[in-house]
Amino acid sequence: MRLSRAARGILAIMTGLVLAAIYLPLFVVFVNSFSTSTSLSWPPPGFTLEWWSRAFRSEGALDALVTSVQVASVATLISLVLGTLISLALQRYTFFGREAVSLLVILPIALPGIITGIALNNAFRTILGIQLSILTVIVAHATFCIVTVFNNVIARLRRQGTNFEEASADLGAGLWTTFRLVTFPQLRSALFAGGLLAFALSFDEIIVTTFTAGAGVKTLPLWILDNLFRPNQAPIVNVIAVVLVLVSIIPIYIAQRIAGAEKIVR
Amino acid sequence: MTVDASAPPGNRMTVPPPRDTLGRRGSVFLSLHPRLRLTLLLSAPLFWLGLVYIAALAALLITALWTVDTFTGQISQTWTLDNIITVLTGSLYQTVTVRTVGVALLVTIVDIVIALPIAFYMAKVASPRAQRILVIAVLMPLWASYLVKAYAWRSVLSQDGILQWLLAPFGGETPGYGLPATIITLSYLWLPYVILPIYAGLERVPDSLLEASGDLGGKTGATLRLVVLPMIWPAIIAGSIFSFALSLGDYITVNIVGGANQLLGNLVYTNVGAANNLPLAAAIALIPIVIIFGYLAVVRRTGALENL
User: Fold this and answer.
1) Inter-chain contact B121–A224, Cβ cutoff 8 Å?
2) Which residue on chain A is closest to B270 by alpha carbon?
3) Number of domains comprising chain B
4) Tell me: the pLDDT tens digits for A117-158?
5) Quick check: keyword Metal-binding in the entry (chain B) (predicted)?
6) Hey, are the CB atoms on B148 and A206 less than 8 Å from each other?
7) Which of A227, A213, A215 is nearest to A51 (CA)?
8) pTM for the complete prediction?
9) Which CATH number fits domain A60-265: 1.10.10.10, 3.20.20.30, 1.10.3720.10, 1.10.357.20?
């Protein structure tokens, strides 16, 4: 198949249009973060830096940001460990109930968040009798983050096979040494990509969080939901969204660099 | 190799046998017992998923068979099928179920139709450098908060928003808030989740296959239909699982841009919160659970679950 110049051109234009549509709302958010209108009317009536200076002094927002980073970091760490264990088990062994286990991993993301949310809320409060806190949020988030790590790691394991590990074992390395010096380095970029997605998933989750967060726990999405419909706070929310998108370029760029470098080696 | 063979035996490097430490013995023991290794690998994740998730889910489903005492507002553990019968026969639930599934299907179709050309361009046409930039461009919006994006669409679609401003000169107007706005916003939110698996699927299609098809006389359309599509079908289904499942349970977007419309998620939410009727909420939650399980059962054979 040879694509004609016209076909390539059309594809390029379509890609451009889709990207424009993807960035239109983000552009509106960006512009509104400088707008003097609190009702987000278009075109913006005037320019102000007030929201930006207020956002960096907003204690509620900064506290929520810290809480979100804490929750996402711990949840990502847990899901990295559990996701790696389960993908090693599913990729390297055949056993009864293997399909059921792989279904079990994707279920927390495949079922709607509100179901996971009320199920965990019910289990924590009525069955286990635990007070909702930041820990319950972390447990809930780790549960649905496992799948992103699992997907990345198992795809990598499938591709790289077991030759290197067998060579390592033949040369006298124990199981742990082989994992540390052979398996883990090969998985590193997959773990980074999976961990990044897990972090993003947890950082932005709102529905499960609503049902599992204790009274004093405010993650960033919960804070945003509280403030989105307050005219004097909505522009601050815009500022935070702009900052998050800009900051996110760094980890995504690193992930891309790692993936790109590996491709060249292969 | 010949150098090794001709070297005098005394000069050969000898590798000492590994020291017999406790760790070494453990390692040897585990190497000889693959089942034990498997058990050790699986025990922690299965303990977590089984205890945290499956037990919670099962408890919720059992709650659907209980009822709420109308006087005390407490859940009374008398077994009854009333909630399930209410959900199955109530016209409200049927209407909302049809509406929710319709919205979820439309969102999925819109996302796949948009994702296919852009993913194809990214994987097969763009230069490696452009490819990297495009992946970043697609991934970046994922980091802007879900809520902010939904709210941005509220602002874009409003009567004095940018869409009205853009379309008015051409005689068009914004669709305003309602189901179309809900479908637009949900499609927007889940689009990256659909583009990425399809892009990954297309990357795995070797260029040589496309060239072979061309050399054998396959036109572009035939190549796409007979070579590319069968290979990326699992990836498309994998993307559809995301957009379909995420739309099926959403209640926040529809609150922000959906006007007065309700989806299944709203019914569950109202019954958990304001109505304080967890058993009925659990019974309503059974609808999306059954639909998702049905969907997963249908697509399992395509191998989509390995492409998520």
Assistant:
1) no
2) A114
3) 1
4) 999 998 888 888 888 899 999 999 999 999 989 988 988 888
5) no
6) no
7) A227
8) 0.85
9) 1.10.3720.10
